[in-house]
Specification:
Blueprint: E1 5-9, H1 15-23, E2 28-34, H2 39-55, E3 60-62, H3 67-75, E4 78-84, H4 96-102, E5 105-109, H5 132-144, E6 147-149, H6 155-164, E7 170-171, H7 188-196, E8 200-203, H8 218-232, E9 237-239, H9 251-257, H10 289-298, H11 303-321, H12 325-334
Parallel strand pairs: 1-2, 2-4, 3-4, 4-5, 5-6, 7-8, 8-9
């Protein structure tokens, strides 16, 4: 029994989208519940998710460990795993790392485009690497089972996070820079370092990170996946679609600008397209994962490799990453 996992979405959540997840056979989704929110605002977002879990129990439930993905598959539901695209929910308090993990957070980016208290974002002119607090927070994240995510971080900070972390980290939603240069896409040395330490790379379907943007072809995308697999092996690859379905364009203001500036800063493509770009025609919502799966087969991946990229690799990573390190070691010893 294979599992289908998307390791990043930020949609305008609704019953329609939850039903599309089921139609697409999506067993688990890592959802963004914070961009620039502080701790209390993040708790409010969790409260909203609790209402959705209560309203649509036949469709979704909160995931906390890898076994919840298997349960979702068996029960015909989708497990929802919480993540942050910014460390703002822990504010300047390392004690909140354990608290947010207890509340269900399983991924946290150390920076989102800008410099944070922990690391440098990919839009800064200079990247001094991890801060002192960043190193301490990584240690605490390792202890409790909160995954370090460097999707929006600058390269030196990412390499230092890979080196410092005692547990494998993730880049949940980005593509290789060799395919298309974009500030968020990752150079070969970062991808290799990630893979060599057991980390995971989730390929993004957000048009600003694709060759040809909205006009990117499925063939081109899947050939890029194949080329990356040749470089680091298919076992460390997955999907992190970065699907931002059904949001009004105004939401980009919060994603890009938060509360840190009064000016317009939309990031890549800002001058021409301040709103959300159109998705490629072959991937518009959760029902289209079968297109990606077929595309991967068409470029030469075998059945096991396709299953891995579509979810099994993430599931293995979930199993190893979401609990305290001691508990993970004990579970492995018992197997």
């Amino acid at each position: 029994m294979t599992h289908r996992i998307d390791c990043l979405q930020y949609a305008n959540w609704s019953e329609k989208i939850f039903r599309q997840m089921r139609e697409g056979g999506v067993d688990a989704v890592h959802v963004t519940i914070a961009y620039h929110e502080n701790f209390r605002e993040t708790v409010q977002n969790i409260e909203q998710w609790n209402r959705w879990f209560e309203q649509f129990p036949e469709l979704i439930f909160q995931g906390r460990i890898g076994a919840d993905v298997r349960r979702a598959k068996t029960e015909g539901r989708t497990a929802i795993f919480f993540g942050f695209q910014n460390p703002s929910p822990i504010e300047d308090d390392i004690g909140l790392v354990e608290i947010v993990h207890t509340l269900g957070a399983r991924f946290m980016q150390l920076s989102y485009n800008n410099q944070s208290l922990l690391a440098t974002g990919c839009y800064e002119a200079q990247d001094p690497g991890l801060t002192r607090m960043g190193r301490e927070v990584i240690d605490e994240m390792n202890r409790v089972g909160l995954v370090v995510d460097m999707s929006h971080s600058a390269d030196r900070s990412t390499l230092e996070a890979i080196e410092h972390s005692a547990r494998p980290i993730a880049i949940t939603h980005a593509n290789p820079a060799f395919w298309v240069p974009a500030r968020r896409n990752k150079p070969d040395d970062v991808i290799r370092a990630l893979a060599e330490t057991g980390g995971m790379l989730g390929f993004s379907l957000y048009p600003h990170h694709l060759k040809g943007k909205s006009d990117c072809t499925l063939q081109s995308f899947c050939e890029m996946v194949a080329q990356t697999a040749e470089m680091v092996g298919p076992e460390v690859l997955g999907i992190g679609s970065d699907l931002c379905q059904d949001h009004p364009d105004s939401v980009v203001d919060w994603m890009r600008m938060g509360r840190w500036t009064k000016k317009v800063d939309y990031g890549e493509g800002s001058a021409a397209a301040p709103g959300f770009p159109d998705m490629p025609t072959w991937f518009t919502d959760n029902r289209d994962f079968s297109n990606v799966e077929a595309g991967l087969r068409s470029v030469g991946f075998d059945a096991a490799e396709v299953a891995g990229i579509m979810g099994e690799n993430w599931l293995r990573f979930f199993d190893a990453s979401f609990g305290p390190a001691r508990e993970v070691r004990e579970a492995r010893a018992a197997e």
